[in-house]
Here is the input.
Amino acid sequence: MKHNFRLLNASLLVTALGFGLAFVQPTSVVPKLPNILLILTDDQGYHDVSYYGTNDLRTPYIDSLARSGMRFDNFYANCPVCSPTRAALLSGRYPDRVGVPGVIRTDARNSWGYLSPDAVLLPVHLKKRGYHTALIGKWHLGLETPNLPNDRGFDLFKGWTGDMMDDYLTHRRHGNNYMRENRQTIDPPGHATDLFSNWAVDYVRQQATRNGPFFLYLAYNAPHDPIQPPAEWLARVTARKPGIDPKRAALVALIEHMDDGIGRVIRALRESGQYDNTLIVFSSDNGGHLPLRANNGPFRAGKESMYEGGLRVPTCIAWPGRVMPGSVSEQVNLSMDLYPTLLAVADVQPQNPIDGRGFLNTLLGQSPTPNDARPLYFTRREGGDRYAGQCSYALREGNWKLVQNGPFEPMTLYDLSRDPKEEHNLASEQVETRRRLQSLLMQHIQQGGRVPWQRP
Here is the structure.
């Protein structure tokens, strides 16, 4: 029986064979429900982690999660921009099916989503299993009731309700303060990345005194622009890499600063005795932004684009004693697949509709879910001259990928198995394949169109 994961090196294979039962136990023998730490970064490029060998930046703590758990090399964000991916991650559904086909912005004239009241978010289910639920960091799914974090299942919210910050130190957007502790406006001093990391450390330590599991969704604004790393972190990068492009240096410094905060959260788990019973997920909400010198590896384009560089994201999951250290999965998964996977970890069987496919069996090294040719659908609604309120689309089925990278651009077709960089458009050669995928795409568009995406 073929497993679609592999080990990073032979020494790990020996460890796996000798101690396999420690890592592949049936879920029924887990003594208690694990804590769940879900870390989501903002606009982090596919290769903006040093575990892929990127030599101008260092992310030792993110790398440690990949080494101690499973790395996913074919992981997709549900959208090449922020809000839709976050909606998919928390609802387990395609984002337009929960009313978020585009970015929810603080300016209503340029806002392209409204989270559906029918969407049952991840913390709602976890609370029923005794989890204390917390969101620290960026929400970006609504600015007022009934679409604030405390309305949608989070016991604790401490962070930012809006979209981007205009400044990491003053925490404002168009002069407005969207920093909240639950429903109370707060105005703490300090770099936003440090605030979120510090609050997460405090939360982890507090939960160590509580009898019951926790779910912490730690959502950073970094490395979204404006690229404002602390001066000492930028100095480290420029000293280490003389001659580095100044824009790239600033982005690397912002990522390394965030990685250090992630390391402090992991250290708090260890010091409080909770690490061994905590599942940790790391991922990004979309590909990196190329004008800021993000690194999306070998793939075409970046954030905002329906090409691979806009959708592929670095992802790994660690769970001590359960996930094989150093394993790598080639399975194609999306952000929304985390929803049923984490519910399975918590032994929850939801009754609400879910589009995501769980992959807990893959994670545990058991017989994986077949990596079948399920169609994967991507949409993004946007304003401005290029989009004019219309949508761009992509659909992947197996190795075929149909792309309409802007609403007024033609459909293009790529065979990712032979052309992972999406350089050769086969739409005029593979006419029947293009028509079949367009038909699937239209069905998805019809389903998404049934859900209102504007504020009532």
Summary: The two ends are 51 Å apart (CA to CA).
